[in-house]
Amino acid sequence: MNGTLRVLAAGDHFVLPSLITSAVGQELRDHQCDVDVRELTLGWPLEPFGPVAEVTEASDAEDELIEALSDDREVLVTQMAPVTERVLDASPSLRLVVVCRGGPVNVNLEAAKSRDVRVCFSPGRNAAATAEFTVALMLAALRRIPQAHDLLARQGSWQGATYYTYEHSGLELEDLPVGLVGYGAVGSRVARVLCAFGARVMVYDPYVHGEIHGLRLSSLDELLTRSQVITLHARLTPETRGLIGARELALLPPGAVVVNAARGPLLDEDALCDALESGHLSAAALDTYEREPLPADSRLLGLTERVVLTPHLGGASRATAEKAASIAAGEVGRWARGEPLAHSLR
Fold first, then answer.
1. Residue 263 catalytic?
2. pLDDT per position in the chain (346 positions), as tens?
3. What letter does residue 297 receive in the DSSP assignment?
4. Which of 101, 189, 263, 334 is catalytic?
5. Nearest-CA neighbor of 80 among 180, 182, 9?
6. Which of 153, 152, 172, 176 is nearest to 162 (CA)?
7. Is 312 a known active-site residue?
8. Catalytic pick from 292, 299, 322, 337?
9. Residue 45's Cα: distance from chain center in Å?
10. What distances in angstroms separate CA 225 from CA 221, 250, 253, 265, 288, one per listed residue?
């Protein structure tokens, strides 16, 4: 491609527009074209779904995006911009959309395809961050770190020292049977870390073949009955929605711990609360929820002595934002050079 490549870096407060601009400039530094990058900062949505039904997990900035694309931008790089049919209709020069996340959930894919707009995404950008966060959640739940911190730092109480009794003390990872439901980019990293701790790692994932870190089990039920801790790493699909419900939780041994930093709807929250309230589960650590933000009347908020709750922060590291911008810029470079795209839907 010769001439001027007109790019819109529609970033936000996490994947900064400046990160996108820098990564695109680095990727195309030796390319025979000028790169005109316009920056736009979008707000982060408070709700998990976009302003219209056709896209999800998007900002509400349709009008702002249309105005920013109006000067014949050919390429859009973004994390949260709502690429709706209306936006595409108003942007006839747009030829490539690159989303700085694991899937283009904020893009109307049918509308893009019908207008010959290529759509790419950035898989793997937060795998390391989410894996580390998962292990941190696990340790926090096993050793009751947030509860002890709250008693001492916020309440000025030494009562957390009661955790230094046999009855109330936590579990350690060494020799602990830990079951992983899913063994993708995140799950495989968690397995390696847990093996380093000396945990007895078991894995259930019917879609993964080849060598794994840990013992492969052929059924979810077997994994559950043998695991003192389970951590979820499956993709959310119609098949996996509600994968862990009351029946599955009942298969866990008494005192088991559940960790979920993947997708909230993998886990039946009411069933989880029932199991925690009955004492069948000793603890849970969650970063994702069936509804986000977590509703004020959630039963989980009444179980803080047993649960660790964080607001969907698993992938929130600076390296994640930098990797996302770099992966997206790589796609822009391949498109500009006429090379096959690495993470395109077609």
1. yes
2. 567 899 999 999 999 999 999 999 999 998 777 889 999 999 876 554 444 568 988 999 999 999 999 999 999 999 999 999 999 999 999 999 999 999 999 999 999 999 999 999 999 999 999 999 999 999 999 999 999 999 999 999 999 999 999 999 999 999 999 999 999 999 999 999 999 999 999 999 999 999 999 999 999 999 999 999 999 999 999 999 999 999 999 999 999 999 999 999 999 999 999 999 999 999 999 999 999 999 999 999 999 999 999 999 999 999 999 999 999 999 999 999 999 999 998 6
3. T
4. 263
5. 9
6. 152
7. yes
8. 292
9. 16
10. 6, 9, 6, 22, 24
> Could you identify the residue written with the tokens 């933000």?
293
CA distances from 182 to 44, 191, 208, 235, 297 (A): 29, 10, 8, 8, 30
Q: Extract the tokens encoding 313.
A: 């922060």
Collect contacts of 301-304 with beta carbons under 8 A, ≥24 apart. Answer: 303/273, 303/276, 303/277, 304/147
Say what the pLDDT of residue 54 is: 86
Sign of the Cα torsion 300, 301, 303, 304 reads: positive
Q: Is 120 helix (H, G, I), strand (E, B) or coil?
A: strand
Quick one: three-class SS letters along 79-96? CCCCECHHHHHCCCCCCE
For residue 189, indicate whether it is catalytic.
no
Percent helix / strand / coil, the chain, rounded to 5:
35, 20, 45
* Side chain identity, residue 213: H
Indicate the SS3 state at residue 66: helix
What number of CA atoms fall less than 13 Å from residue 159's CA on the CB side?
A: 8
For residues 97 and 69, what is the distance between their CA atoms, to the nearest angstrom?
12
Partners of residue 4 on adjacent β-strands: 34
Cβ proximity of 75 and 68 under 8 Å = no
C-alpha–C-alpha distance, residues 215 and 217, integer Å: 6
Phi (first) and psi of residue 39, to 5 degrees: -105, 140
Q: Which amino acid is at 314?
A: G
